[in-house]
């Protein structure tokens, strides 16, 4: 592209890239992972970025889950604008108006356009590669370009994904969805796209399988970041501007002595307090961490929203939950939506956030924890909000005291490097 072109998306101005620009969302990442791998000598490029690049400490969106944050990053806006406030929510319009708990993967739930789609409409060559297919349609909504997932890389078509024979391009088989290889495929595909095509803007989104299992500095974590390091270095060699951030952090959520998850089962508590369950008109607990891939976290995270019967005093219930050990904060709908910039019509009467070492469940009988082969690590709360923002070029024009958010990354990469 020859001349700088400005596009406006959700009230923000962006310059179209004059050189290949790659935005990387490393699922479940935090500074400790990067610093540990760099210190261990297994990630020399990341060590270089931390020392010589532009490095910021930022905040992700709460709830600190995958869908809200990935969509915030590509729209440059919080969930109050784009509407995606979880991986899963209660849709009162579903099931013929009776309401139902549904996945938030359908682009019909998206209320704002993406920077990716706007850049493509303005003539940029845009590519998106994500680990899990659950994000693909949301990230690629109304976007002209290449968009596919590692998970379904063997099913791509030119009509649906803007590309053919991804397996041949990348030279890897389709990875198992519960593996580090699912994320490696994302990086490998990103490099091959840069090597074989003219790409102006690329978005890469990984999976947090490794981060759910391995703490910073452990063998499994360092191996993952060593893998990532070589692909990032290659993208740099190919002349790309790189911006790296995360959708959320990750913390241990288990008893260090027993290794058992620290869980507060909210649905069980409310059923007991109110004397009735959901089917009898009681409270309904929604866990927005829920997605089709629950083996590594058992659908247990540190954020929940509660729908209460109209005759129940929400303040009294909120105060009772807030007094429990392991609870960080309990907010009303209005308080939560104001503090976390959420869409009020997609959030319950109460929002509950647990502390750094505790997760929230519905009923004990509804959570299958047999897939947890290691002590639980998870996310969703305020304690997982701090994320890195790293750039391989120096930045200018950013206020010195500004606290960036992960969804500022496109603004920085396109307007300030």
TrEMBL record:
Q: Record's superkingdom?
A: Bacteria
One Pfam family here: Phosphodiest
Against InterPro entries, the record matches this protein to: Alkaline_phosphatase_core_sf, Phosphodiest/P_Trfase, Phosphonoacetate_hydro, Phosphonoacetate_hydro_insert
Query: Which keywords does this Swiss-Prot/TrEMBL entry list?
Result: Hydrolase
One Gene Ontology MF term: phosphonoacetate hydrolase activity
Q: Which NCBIfam families match?
A: hydr_PhnA (TIGR02335)
Q: What is this protein called?
A: Phosphonoacetate hydrolase
Question: What is the organism of origin for this protein?
Answer: Pandoraea nosoerga
């Amino acid at each position: 592209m020859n001349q700088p072109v400005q596009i406006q998306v959700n009230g923000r101005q962006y310059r179209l890239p004059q050189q290949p620009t790659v935005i990387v969302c490393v699922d479940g990442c935090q500074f400790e992972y990067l610093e540990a791998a760099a210190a261990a000598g297994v990630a020399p490029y990341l060590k270089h970025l931390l020392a010589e690049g532009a490095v910021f400490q930022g905040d992700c969106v709460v709830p600190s889950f995958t869908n809200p944050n990935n969509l915030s990053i590509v729209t440059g806006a919080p969930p109050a604008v784009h509407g995606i406030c979880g991986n899963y929510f209660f849709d009162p319009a579903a099931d013929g108006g009776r309401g139902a708990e549904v996945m938030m993967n359908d682009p019909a739930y998206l209320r704002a356009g993406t920077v990716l789609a706007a850049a493509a409409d303005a003539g940029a060559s845009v590519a998106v590669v994500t680990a899990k297919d659950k994000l693909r349609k949301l990230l690629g909504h109304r976007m002209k370009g290449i968009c596919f997932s590692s998970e379904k890389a063997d099913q791509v078509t030119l009509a649906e994904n803007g590309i053919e024979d991804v397996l041949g391009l990348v030279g890897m088989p389709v990875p198992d969805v519960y593996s580090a290889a699912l994320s490696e495929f994302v990086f490998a595909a990103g490099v091959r796209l840069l090597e074989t095509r003219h790409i102006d803007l690329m978005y890469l989104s990984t999976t947090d399988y490794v981060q759910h299992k391995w703490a910073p500095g452990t063998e499994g974590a360092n191996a993952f970041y060593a893998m990532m390091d070589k692909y990032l270095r290659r993208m740099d060699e190919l002349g790309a501007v790189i911006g790296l951030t995360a959708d959320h952090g990750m913390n241990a959520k288990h008893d260090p002595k027993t290794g058992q998850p620290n869980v507060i089962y909210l649905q069980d508590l409310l059923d007991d307090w109110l004397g009735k369950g959901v089917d009898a008109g009681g409270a309904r607990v929604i866990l927005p961490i829920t997605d089709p891939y629950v083996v590594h976290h058992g659908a247990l995270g540190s954020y929940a929203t509660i729908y209460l019967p109209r005759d129940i005093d929400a303040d009294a219930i909120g105060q009772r939950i807030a007094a429990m050990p392991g609870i960080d904060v309990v907010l009303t709908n209005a308080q939560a939506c104001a503090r976390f910039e959420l869409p009020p019509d997609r959030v319950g009467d109460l929002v509950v956030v647990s502390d750094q070492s505790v997760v929230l469940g519905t009923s004990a009988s509804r959570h299958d924890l047999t897939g947890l082969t290691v002590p639980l690590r998870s996310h969703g709360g305020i304690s997982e909000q701090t994320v890195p923002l790293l750039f391989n070029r120096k930045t200018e024009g950013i206020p010195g005291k500004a606290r960036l958010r992960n969804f500022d990354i496109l603004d920085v990469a396109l307007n300030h490097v």
